[in-house]
Amino acid sequence: MEIRVRGGDSFWGYSQLFGVPIQLLLDSNPGINPQALMIGQTVNIPGYVTREYQIVPGDTIWQIARTAGVPQDTLLLLNPSIQANSLRVGQIIQIPVRVTNYMVHTSRPYDYGDMLEDLNTLAEVYPFIRIQSIGTSVMGKELPEIRIGIGSKQVHANASFHANEWITTPVLIRFLNEYLLALTNNGSIRGLVMNPLYESTMLSLVPMVDPDGVDLVVNGLPSEEPYRSDVLAINGESSDFSGWKANIRGVDLNNQFPALWERQAEIGPQAPAPRDYPGTAPLTEPESQAMANLTWNSNFSRVLAFHTQGRVIYWGFEGLQPPESEVIVNEFARVSGYEPIEYVESWAGFKDWFIQDWRRPGFTIEVGQGTNPLPLSQFEQIYQESLGILLASL
């Protein structure tokens, strides 16, 4: 929600009037000097939207404010052209509405377009989040990364490395939404106050690493060539892509990292396939390159990769993980009910590479139980189990 600065206004005053932490106001308006506000300048107020109201006979600003449940001054601030003592019947004014509910999709199969729509909505209401593209997919889709928080500790989580594991994406998006709601409403999640975490931690999210593959699984064959013909050939001319884990070129993105890649290449398919083909070399795919570049250019304290399924957490790699990894995974297991597993006969994964090259904690979290893609009927349980892990990670 945008307002116009009046004489005598201050960020402290806005914080008191709208009940929004001043740090979030500052971060929502990075180009504004809070010590030198200029009359008429536009300021973003996070956590609010507006609705229109048409003046009817007998209305007063006081009555409208009381009915809307907002201070009278917020109406005047939002409607600077309104003369409080001479309202005109039929006049349209804006009513500030504090957002207290989720704004994201979780009730239908979730594709790339759903994610972009949700991120655009959240960015408009919560302008203190930062969204950047870390690269593009094979088909040219931007890969968004969301950053939230100002702390020195950096925690990264990603989802949908695998196409038919798309249910992990709305898990991260809903967590983002719940976190934003708690921050702007001075609230808590499971009894934990969120604002101190915002100030101590920077959270990085890449909610959909493989958008081309996700769209293939959720929506079916693409219309574009050569992708349409290529995926049909790779999939044995079948239009059932429920077993497809790879990117649109038939490369498994979580077998693409230089962490004993050669060992994985020996046991995996030797040509593009719906799953498990590691490519001709590490980091040949634009999606895995984007994740590698993001990690090289950041300073992540720990990384979490959300996958499906099995209700287990993999946390080791060749004995290179630090001692704190076991402490963290035991807490993840406590809050989720998932089983921690130190080693598995698999290599070249994102968390493997992170542990190997940084010697910091990395986790592959296999949410839910059953056959991929997991049904939406599991979403709420998966989310509640993942919520504990995400909170503990911060």
Automatic annotation (TrEMBL):
The active site is at residue 366. Keywords: Hydrolase, Metalloprotease, Protease, Zinc. InterPro entries: ENP1_M14_CPD, LysM, LysM_dom_sf, Peptidase_M14. One of its GO terms (cellular component) is extracellular space. Its cofactor is Zn(2+). It comes from the Bacteria. Belongs to the peptidase M14 family. This is LysM peptidoglycan-binding domain-containing protein. It comes from Paenibacillus anaericanus. The lineage of its organism: Bacteria, Bacillati, Bacillota, Bacilli, Bacillales.
